[in-house]
């Protein structure tokens, strides 16, 4: 059994085309019905404002599978500690023996989440998309833009965040990457010229409404990953010409389909893996509006963990 720390993992794995291909292949396998993926195990630790999620999946025919343990303790910054942490345990799919433990401290989750946003945009956003609006200014906001540049020629970024100083700091980092960046006071101002909108917040009430959507925009919602979070107003979902989830079941419990809890969803729900596996073309014209809700799946974790271990073993 091998033990790898975050610094070694970061040197081996980044947001690049090979990692993108690995995660995309995992989604496509899910769409073809080649993945065993149990529901997320989630546990709240309310007295510490914390939660722990456990995700896993087995891709049939793969050499390995991973089990990820992902704690989020959201008062940690007051203690000078990061909010997110975690590790991935990688097992042989033939013998069940532990091959490695990746003490990535949430790094691989960050990578695969950013890549999932790029995969959604690759499948759903206009090919001529150049301008992205980002709601939120944390690490994932910046990483989403980095990943999007693998699949679209992004030139300009518009940022809105609840904390202006956070948005300005994010903008400064993105400008250092050669992008033109504007910070906005309102969500509508950030989105008015967007080709792609990415929501990356821990919001508990909807931030984005149908009135904020330009014609032909693609929206990727990243932040709603638990029952108490929501970023999109129901009007965004009903306005979309095509709605895609990583999995419908998770979107209904943790994601944006919670807006229709207790009622029938009034539109067709596509799943990203099947869209990829079947090569489905959901964007029918330049004016089509698409929405993708990504709650984070175990197959992404198995895909990125297997990819990371192959890179680490090759060093």
Automatic annotation (TrEMBL):
Enzyme class: lyase
Pfam families the record matches: OCD_Mu_crystall
Keyword Lyase assigned: yes
GO molecular function, one term: ornithine cyclodeaminase activity
Enzyme Commission number(s) from the entry: 4.3.1.12
Any one cellular-component term (Gene Ontology): cytoplasm
Keywords associated with the record: Lyase
Identification of the protein by name: Ornithine cyclodeaminase
Species, as recorded: Halomonas organivorans
Lineage: Bacteria, Pseudomonadati, Pseudomonadota, Gammaproteobacteria, Oceanospirillales
């Amino acid at each position: 059994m091998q033990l790898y720390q975050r610094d070694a993992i970061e040197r081996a794995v980044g947001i690049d085309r090979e990692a993108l291909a690995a995660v995309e292949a995992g989604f496509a396998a899910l769409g073809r019905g080649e993945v065993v993926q149990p529901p997320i195990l989630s546990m709240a630790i309310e007295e510490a404002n914390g939660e722990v999620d456990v995700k896993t999946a087995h891709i049939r025919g793969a050499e390995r599978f991973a089990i990820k343990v992902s704690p989020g303790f959201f008062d940690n910054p007051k203690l000078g500690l990061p909010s997110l942490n975690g590790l991935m345990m990688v097992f042989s799919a033939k013998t069940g023996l532990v091959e490695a433990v990746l003490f990535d401290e949430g790094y691989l989750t960050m990578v695969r989440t950013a890549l999932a946003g790029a995969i959604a945009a690759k499948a759903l956003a206009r090919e001529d998309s150049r301008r992205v609006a980002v709601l939120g200014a944390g690490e994932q906001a910046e990483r989403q833009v980095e990943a999007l540049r693998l699949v679209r020629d992004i030139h300009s970024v518009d940022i809105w965040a609840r904390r202006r100083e956070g948005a300005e700091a994010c903008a400064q980092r993105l400008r250092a990457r050669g992008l033109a960046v504007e910070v906005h006071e309102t969500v509508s101002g950030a989105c008015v010229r967007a080709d792609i909108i990415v929501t990356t917040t821990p919001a508990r009430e909807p931030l984005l409404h149908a009135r904020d959507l330009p014609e032909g925009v693609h929206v990727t919602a990243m932040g709603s990953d638990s029952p108490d979070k929501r970023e999109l107003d129901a009007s965004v979902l009903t306005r979309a010409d095509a709605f895609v989830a990583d999995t419908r079941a998770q979107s209904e419990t943790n994601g944006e389909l919670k807006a229709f809890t207790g009622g029938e969803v009034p539109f067709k729900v596509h799943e990203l893996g099947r869209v990829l596996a079947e090569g489905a073309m959901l964007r029918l014209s330049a004016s089509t509006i698409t929405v993708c809700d990504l709650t984070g799946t175990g197959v992404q974790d198995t895909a990125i963990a297997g990819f990371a271990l192959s890179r680490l073993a090759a060093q």
